[in-house]
């Protein structure tokens, strides 16, 4: 696949619209009433409700579900929900409510939707099956990870946000993303994406992690890695930070605002030929790149079609196949051990953001070709839309 002949600035909006359309195409709202807790067509009353071959016990703002099989679960009331084993729910909808979901035993909750101003916390403990988490409007979703968990995707449109946080040890609190899928996300339109004390193993052929139209990407004391034959795009729409973390991907890191890399091991290599071979495998920042507490790395400046850009170089290879090393061990490698790398880092840049300039060029085959990297947003989001339509 070849990069389209477009400027760096255009893919932000095009990519955002394509992703939003892809997400919207997958949303089938039930006929929703107000101020209810409902399993399929049954509105739950206080006390024990025999529904879906199991029991849903509503006590004040607490709901315990055991052995319930249902197509849809819906609430617009604040709830603490305990899925206490044996539940098989196709889709859980939360609208304009604060809801915590915890799980004991084995449960299968395929898709979770947060709508309106919903605030949803999903406690993933490694014993349950999930497929997709979807956030819309101004909602927020936090996935608290304990142990190893599988998800197909986590996607947000509009101003919705998603945070994935480990709870015990970032090396053991794991998300396996998109195993067997051609495309997966932990991605948003305009909202923020946060990875905090967690490991994300990308198993999909292609993946986007980040925000593509204005939200920040934060990777803190976390790891993102992909299989040798995969492709990953890490993207931030405004100031984005990779701190005390490990990145080991084939693909691209692109910041449409300022990009800060702080005491992190960041390796970005060329993807396999079948994955966007025309696109750059670089670390690119539109509004500057800061390297803090890094052992190596130089920030170079260049341009494409009149747009000033910055990128990281580690071996004189003009920014390709970057292998950036932290000054000291990133905190990701430690679980519960307190030492100097667990403290807040100092803001001392390793290099000037414009240490060296490359010749200006609009040629996408020239040494600096950020237009190609940016166009990944269009390519992946377009693939998403087509694949959603085929499903």
Explain what this protein looks like in three dimensions.
It is a single chain. The chain has 391 residues and is mostly beta strands. Helices cover 9% and strands 45% of the residues. It has 2 helices and 34 strands. The strands form 2 sheets. It has a 21-stranded mixed beta sheet that branches. A 13-stranded mixed beta sheet has the order 3-4-5-7-9-11-13-16-19-22-25-27-30, with no helix packed on it. A hairpin with a 2-residue loop joins strand 3 (47-51) and strand 4 (54-59). Mean pLDDT is 80; it is low at 1-33 and 339-391.
Low-pLDDT runs: 1-33, 339-391
Radius of gyration: 22 Å
Strand residue content? 35-45%
Helix percentage:
under 10%
C-alpha end-to-end distance:
23 Å
Can you count the helices?
A: 2
Most strands sheet: 21 strands, mixed
Mean pLDDT: 80
Instruction: Categorize the overall geometry.
Output: elongated
Structural class: mainly beta
For this structure, the quaternary state is single chain
Q: How many strand elements?
A: 34
């Amino acid at each position: 696949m070849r990069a389209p002949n477009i400027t760096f600035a255009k893919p932000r909006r095009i990519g955002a619209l394509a992703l939003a359309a892809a997400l919207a195409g997958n949303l089938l709202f039930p006929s929703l009433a107000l101020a209810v807790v409902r399993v399929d067509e049954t509105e739950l009353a206080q006390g024990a409700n025999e529904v879906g071959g199991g029991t849903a016990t509503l006590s004040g703002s607490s709901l315990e579900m055991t052995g319930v099989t249902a197509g849809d679960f819906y609430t617009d009331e604040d709830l603490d929900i305990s899925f206490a084993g044996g539940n098989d729910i196709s889709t859980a909808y939360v609208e304009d409510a604060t809801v915590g979901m915890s799980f004991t035993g084995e449960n299968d909750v395929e898709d979770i939707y947060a709508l309106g101003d919903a605030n949803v916390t999903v406690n993933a403990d490694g014993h349950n099956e999930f497929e997709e988490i979807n956030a819309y409007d101004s909602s927020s979703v936090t996935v608290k990870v304990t142990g190893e968990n599988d998800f197909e995707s986590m996607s947000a449109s509009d101003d919705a946000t998603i945070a994935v946080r480990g709870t015990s040890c970032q090396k053991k609190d794991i998300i396996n993303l998109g195993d067997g899928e051609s495309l997966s996300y932990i991605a948003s339109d305009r909202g923020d994406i946060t990875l905090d004390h967690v490991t994300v193993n990308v198993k999909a052929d292609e993946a986007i992690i980040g925000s593509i139209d204005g939200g920040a990407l934060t990777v803190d004391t976390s790891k993102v890695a992909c299989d040798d034959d995969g492709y990953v795009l890490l993207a931030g729409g405004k100031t984005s930070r990779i701190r005390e973390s490990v990145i080991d991907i084939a693909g691209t890191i692109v910041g449409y605002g300022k990009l800060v890399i702080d005491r992190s091991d960041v390796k970005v290599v060329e993807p396999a030929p079948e994955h966007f071979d025309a696109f750059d495998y670089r670390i690119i920042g539109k509004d500057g790149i800061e390297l803090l507490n890094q052992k190596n790395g130089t920030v170079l400046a260049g341009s494409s079609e009149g747009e000033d850009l910055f990128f990281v170089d580690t071996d004189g290879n003009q920014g390709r196949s970057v292998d950036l090393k932290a000054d000291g061990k990133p905190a990701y490698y430690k679980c519960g051990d307190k030492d100097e790398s667990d403290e807040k880092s100092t803001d001392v840049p390793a290099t000037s953001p414009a240490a060296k300039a490359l010749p200006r060029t609009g040629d996408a085959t020239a040494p600096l070709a950020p237009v190609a990297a940016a166009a990944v947003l269009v390519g992946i989001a377009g693939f998403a839309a087509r694949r959603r339509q085929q499903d």
